[in-house]
Specification:
The protein is an alpha+beta fold. It contains ten helices and ten strands. Bound molecules: adenosine-5'-triphosphate (ATP) and magnesium ion.
């Protein structure tokens, strides 16, 4: 190989590898690979196919075919004929005339006529990831053994590029899933609670409108305030902030206000007690866990427990902070309940992420105790 050719090889291969490090999508990487291969080996047509498991190609990119031609050819190929054979056999194929080979079947009417053909599998260990093939070499004489060697080298690098691109896409998918889970949890714990209270307050306003217009007006003020808070919570979820209330009023006041609000909205009697003095500085994670668990446990108690009273108790014990939500309702079977909603799982996760523990127990005379312990 002369020096120029060697430079061309290096350049083509490195551009494929660089395509990966630039974090392009798998398809863009494949395009770079095919383009480099076509240039490097002076082929009029080049294509690369990654099979799916339904007999077609998950990806099929080609060089040398215009958009109009694609349009006329129709859908991308199935795994039939030579492409299918190569995927099964996993061995290189070099032919002076593709159409004379027994493995050749047919192509659509508008398909360009391919004559000299060079195809190489892209393999990762035993697995055939795809095939890359060239057709119709511009220089007369067809593809040579040296060309085959070059394309094989190139396919080896393509395999790395493809595997990396796949890993990269998968890790990005995982990040998206994690983010979605976080959003779902935050929305569930924070925003739905506010909206729930908002709906009840609006109902109360509607009921009072005809008989007690001035009280209805007060309820409507409350509606406005709750809507503002729901909006703020939503914003906090989106930009991953702490709820503004925590910074404005501190944990204890925020809890107290929340309990007072629910007490007004529901027939059940709700109380809040703080047993002792809170340390001056609480870890942010602990504060957030206490607030969110209290919100969800309260929400569950008012919706599901059918109790007469609900107590919220916050007890600093030196090293820990204990939160208890105690109702005297009908109680429930934890095993059955786990799969019903998001709430229980979310509370448990909150406790874990703050380095604490979470438990749900029966309240001896009847009802439920939800207990969160976090490091203070
Ligand atoms: N204090 C309680 N008293 C009686 N039953 C409860 C209590 N807390 C939870 N449950 C039961 O446990 C189930 C699961 O609670 P969880 O919070 O996980 O889901 P959810 O409240 O039904 O729905 P979500 O919280 O997703 O809106 C509830 O459907 C309810 O049957
Ligand atoms: Mg719930």
């Amino acid at each position: 190989m002369d020096e120029d050719a060697r430079d061309a090889v290096l350049h083509a291969v490195s551009s494929a590898v660089l395509a990966v490090t630039r974090h392009l999508s798998a398809r863009e990487v494949l395009q770079v690979i095919v383009r480099s291969a076509a240039r490097l080996l002076d082929a009029r047509y080049a294509a690369l196919g990654v099979p799916d498991d339904q007999g077609a190609f998950a990806e099929f990119v080609a060089e040398g075919i215009s958009d109009e031609q694609w349009e006329a050819i129709g859908p991308t190929p199935r795994q039939h004929g030579m492409l299918g054979a190569m995927l099964r056999e996993g061995a290189p194929v070099r032919l002076p005339d593709l159409r004379r080979d027994p493995r050749f079947e047919w192509w659509p009417k508008a398909h360009p006529v391919l004559k000299d053909f060079l195809g190489v599998p892209i393999v990762d260990g035993e697995q055939v990831l795809g095939i890359i093939f060239l057709a119709n070499k511009r220089t007369p004489g067809g593809f040579t053994a040296a060309d085959e060697e070059l394309l094989t080298l190139f396919a080896a690098h393509a395999a790395i590029a493809l595997t990396n691109a796949r890993l990269y896409e998968r890790s990005r998918e995982l990040t998206v899933i994690e983010e979605r889970t976080r959003m779902a949890r935050e929305l569930h714990d924070a925003v739905t609670q506010k909206l729930f209270s908002l709906r009840l307050t609006a109902q109360a306003a509607a009921a009072l409108l005809a008989t007690h217009p001035e009280r209805a007006a007060r309820e409507l003020d409350q509606v406005q305030r709750l809507a503002g808070e729901a909006l703020a919570e939503l914003r906090a979820v989106i930009v991953e902030l702490r709820p503004a209330e925590l910074d404005r009023h501190g944990l204890v006041e925020t809890l107290r206000k929340h309990v007072a609000l629910l007490d007004r909205l529901h027939p059940v009697e709700l109380t809040f007690t703080l047993d002792g003095a809170l340390p001056r500085e609480l870890p942010e994670a602990a504060e957030l866990a206490v607030l969110r668990v209290a919100q969800e446990a309260l929400h569950n108690a008012v919706r599901h427990a059918e109790s007469c009273t609900i107590q919220v108790r916050l007890t600093p014990t030196g090293r820990h902070l204990v939160l208890e939500i105690i109702d005297d309702g009908k109680g429930f079977d934890l095993v059955d309940a786990e799969s019903r909603g998001l709430g229980l799982a979310s509370m448990r996760e909150r406790a874990l992420s703050a380095g604490g523990s979470f438990e749900v127990a029966g309240n001896p005379p009847g009802g439920t105790v939800v207990r969160l312990v976090v490091p203070a």
